[in-house]
């Protein structure tokens, strides 16, 4: 009987992540698409104290036709967050992906005006109610140059400063972030971003933070993650892990170690404000076949969940 009880404890957590998140927040990407699963919904509200809409605040979701805004699902998530005493990270205002066709067909000043109007409407709707926004998302190539997109074609690199300025005007209290992937270690891409953030700060562009997505596979967390977070923090911005998931099918122990490492690295940097996990249960992940999340298909805590709880304490 005792052995069975002990076995039952493997992979279990004693209470909720959020009960241990005193120095940093612990968030999850959440989508109402899965709210029909009561286990998912209850884990979202019980375990986490921050929420990022997984898809519901993207451009195609909020402005499917020009000037016609649809906030039904975004509102549902903001309401869910309020009910469960969670803060919200808004994701995302300017991105090369999930751009509705009407917007893709615009060029030059017409696109610039549409971008400003989008930022002002979406941020205005939730003014005062969103802790931070990913103002621009994934604007770099792997070699540290700016990604070619409708935004650069219309405004060159200037779209970034213009977007941040429009964002500050729309909600002066929201923290304004630039967010990207493969920038977690010191490399050509993160150095391109570092140079941009330094330039934006010098120019007085209102940028408050850098989001490190952190889509990893087990065993691949960069050993210089903490060093890299610190060099950005030293520029005078907040940093956050914004989309953490760790592909680890068949590698649960390594996956658990890696989750703990990422949280410890954030805790070691005083300007690292929090860690958001990109989902909750494996089966609803965008990379479900790699079992990248702390809870399994049935919502049971994996070794990763125990490790997250331990690292937060
Ligand atoms: O809602 C439609 C549904 O009506 C339709 O039947 C179905 C058929 O494919 O598609 C559904 O939309 C999908 C949506 O997820 C909701 O499930 C889109 O096709 C699909 O492209 C979309 O994928 C999302 C992806 O971003 C693209 O926007 C993922 O859920 C989401 O996890 C992922 O998140 C991104 C971050 O925003 C940025 N960083 C990388 C990260 C992972 O790719």
Overall strand count: 9
The level 1 CATH classification is: Alpha Beta
Order of helices and strands: HHEHEHHEHHEHHEHEEHEHEH
Based on CA atoms alone, the radius of gyration comes out at: 19 Å
Structural class: alpha/beta
The name CATH uses for the topology is: TIM Barrel
CATH architecture type: Alpha-Beta Barrel
CATH superfamily: Glycosidases
Mean pLDDT metric: 96
* Poorly predicted runs of 5 or more residues: 1-9
Instruction: Provide the number of structural domains.
Output: 1
- Fraction of residues in β-strands: 15-25%
What topology, given as strand order, has the largest sheet? 1-2-3-4-5-6-8-9
For the sheet with most strands, the description reads: 8 strands, parallel, barrel
Descriptive key words:
TIM Barrel, 13 helices, globular, binds ligand G3I, 313 residues
